[in-house]
Amino acid sequence: MIRSVSFQAPHHAVKLKAIGTQTFTFGKGLTFLFGPNGCGKTTTLKALAQGSSAGRGGWSKCIEPSFTKLGIREMLVGQGQVVDWDGTATLFLDSAASDMRSSSSDGLEADESNEAFEANLQRAFSKPSGGQWRISRLNQVAQRILEKKLPDLTKCPEDWEKNYNSVWVKAGNDFADYVKTLEPTGLPTLLLDEPDRSLSIPNAAMLIRNLLPKLAECAQVIVATHSPFALAMKGSALIDMEPGYVATCKAAFADVF
Question: Alpha helix locations (H) across the chain?
Fold first, then answer.
């Protein structure tokens, strides 16, 4: 589970008026990062993914390979990105990389290491609509969580010695040692960037009102969205990513309907 995220200079998010240097905290259940384009929703979501070793999409990896002698977490902190994470596996699906043709091309399988880039290539050549693939992806996510098939981040792949250079192997082993010092809750985190993108209005409503609350019963779910359906979700947390935007949206709907 992810507890919080904050930004410090030199991170660019510090300059966003809705983010600045404040700390965003997260609990169990369903949380919406709600706001217009450009307010920092995806920036915040990606920070959470990177801080829990899921920045390339899919499940947390044993380590996010770095071309420097520093591990990815040390690099992120140095860039002003601080994530309080307990070591439980995190899954990151963005609105593009979740449009799949292959069942494991976004790293949903615990032993997969494919990057979101490969997923986007497959999306470009796939025949089904983005909405169809997105629903398929989320269904597979739900099934894996219900079956408790989560990656064990305290163990690095056995083939690292053969397939990775010495810097990556050391970083991976150091990361596994770091995770062993944490106290995982056993509650995985789902980071979803605009999961309702490309969906019809009824399907988007079903996704946000039915599927996401079900997932939140067995996982921490954090969603970046500007869908109006998020405004009516009782029992969920809503973070207004641009001060006053929630009130503006409600006023706009009142004028129309």
Answer: 41-51, 72-78, 116-124, 130-146, 160-163, 166-180, 201-206, 212-215, 245-256
Residue 64 confidence (pLDDT) above 50:
yes
Q: Which domain holds residue 108?
A: 2-256
Closest CA to 206 of 128, 136, 135, 144: 135
Q: How many CA atoms lie within 13 A of 147 on its CB side?
A: 10
User: What number of residues does the chain have?
Assistant: 257
Q: Where are the alpha helices (DSSP H) in 166-244?
A: 166-180, 201-206, 212-215
Confidence of residue 101 (pLDDT cuts 50, 70, 90): very low
- Non-local (6+) Cβ contacts of 32 within 8 A are 223, 224, 225, 230, 233, 236, 237, 238, 239
Tokens 């990656």 belong to residue: 151
What are the pLDDT digits (tens) for 169-214? 777 888 888 888 999 888 999 999 998 887 888 888 988 998 899 9
CATH of the domain at 198: 3.40.50
What pLDDT is attached to residue 5? 93
Mean pLDDT of the chain: 80
Q: Which region, left, alpha or beta, applies to residue 235 given φ > 0 means left and ψ of -120 to 50 means alpha?
A: left
Q: What are phi and psi of 47, to 5 degrees?
A: -60, -40
C-beta of residue 153 within 8 angstroms of C-beta of residue 176: yes
Domain count, the chain: 1
State how far the Cα of 191 lies from the Cα of 50, in Å rounded to an integer.
Answer: 11
